Structure prediction request, 171 residues.
Amino acid sequence: MANPSPRREFVITTHYFGFDRLTKALRASPHWLGDEIGKGMRQSALAVQRESAMLAPVDTGRLRASITTEIDSAVIPRWANIGPSVKYGRFVEFGRKPGSRPPPSSALVPWMKRHGMPASGAFALARAIARRGIKPQPYMGKGYKAAGRAIDRIWERTMRAVEMRWGRENG
Prediction:
């Protein structure tokens, strides 16, 4: 499938080794299997979204509110994208290296006004950011790590549900 989420600025991706082989083997499986795996995928993605939102730095709350989840719509979903849709989200997560391109001055003006700075200083602030950089504040990566135990529990429950139902139907 082509880029599943062109509106996101960056995406955290997880790969499960052997998952492709499993999905090939189960393509002929009953429809309920995709439902169970989809449920586990949704719950896992929402756990990462929730943890990341709690860790996101807050000025206006826009970054936090922009963190959303998208799940593969295939019968057996293989991916979930979790991330912010605001353009500055990646710069908060990864920072800016000294010497990189400055942010647009116009993007800094609303922040400056909220913090009592004159808008006339936007160019100087952009130049200072370009020279000094910005430290990363990795809310998405830390959110993923913080959700790790919950994700493990979700998949344990999901696999138990699949085993039980498979046993009932294939008895």
The two ends are 36 Å apart (CA to CA). The first strand starts at residue 68 and ends at 71. The beta strands are 68-71, 80-83. The helical segments are 19-25, 31-55, 62-66, 89-94, 105-114, 122-132, 139-146, 148-170.
